[in-house]
Specification:
The chain is α/β, with parallel strands linked by helices and 395 residues long. Helices cover 34% and strands 23% of the residues. The chain starts with 6 loop residues before the first strand and ends with a helix. It binds cytidine-5'-monophosphate.
Length: 395
Amino acid sequence: MSLAGRKVLLVVSGSVAAYKALELIRLLRKDGAEVMPILTAGGARFVTKEALAGISGSRVHDDLWAAEAEIGHIRLARWPDLVVLAPASANLLAKLAHGLADDLASTVLLATRAPVLAAPAMNPAMWAHPATQANVATLAARGVGFVGPEEGPMAEPESGLGRLAEPPAILAAIAARLAAGPLAGRHVVVTSGPTQEAIDPVRYIANRSSGRQGHAIAAALAALGARVTLVSGPVVVPDPPGVTVRRIESARDMLAAVEDALPADAAVFAAAVADFRPDAAPRQKIKKEPGAPPPEIRLALNPDILATIAAHPTQRPRLVIGFAAETEKVVEHAQAKRLRKGCDWIVANDVSGDVMGGAENAVHLVTAAGVEDWPRMPKEEVARRLAQRIAETLS
Ligand code: C5P
């Protein structure tokens, strides 16, 4: 994607991953973007001003008072099309979440009206800390986009969620964010993956959904410029770039996360939500008692997220789209489901073959106007077509 003429203000804060900012700048410039770096005091511990200036071909700003003398923090704040925080330290995210302005980076962040994309990098314990998670939730609710962090080995002798996303992934997120596509300014909520319903602290009931179709839809919507909140059950497919991901386990958590993400212009419910959950999950692991009969699991009905949101009294998205996985009478069942659930469209697929976890899908789009049979195609292509249709309908 060409980023010709797009202006990116890149805040480099304190993390051992700061060296990756140099590669990110190289990639951005290769795609035609103009990059102006701001270096925080912490960032300067890991990468030099000279290296950033050399790679960006721009002057590097690192001092609030010097910037005042040169161009002023307000002019700096007005310059970019997008502000990128890479790496974004726990401290920088905390300052932005709470409106602190005690150095150049935080002051510019408070003054800018440009969209902000953050690529966090920190120790896994710092990322997992409730304070950081609360700050991330606050920022995401205000429209700050996130890319990563990723799971993997860290500089310290430990491993976990906290690694800076790789520069190509950050670049893709930037491109998605800058794309003035037909869904620019729209918010779409997407659910994806399975849910896990606890039997006890270590066991659960789940299903074979891979999340591939839902994640592809989230990526395709973001590529058309939408702000996307993806509420996902446990999956191994990577987070789509440029999408805010909320990870949940159970159906009840998924419903809460979807309600939390509203208002939205459209909602796509591609998750394979468990219909039932164990009625009561004991706090302790259920023991196998010698000679005793196996325990029985009583099931309770889970909330229907699609039907709940389609019937939302105040915040029903304009377009509510459900999925139907059927093994027989696919279209007939989907039509009935559309009416029963109160949604606008149903994307119906025949899962009698290898669709679950597979790379391809053959779907029927069921709307009030009728049924369209789409040929068998890769899940990414199904996602692109669906995103295009959503864009046409919302415009
Ligand atoms: O009723 P069924 O599970 O076949 O409906 C499938 C559609 O409903 C999918 O869009 C799925 O994401 C959604 N669904 C839901 N909450 C449930 C069950 C299904 O949102 N508890």
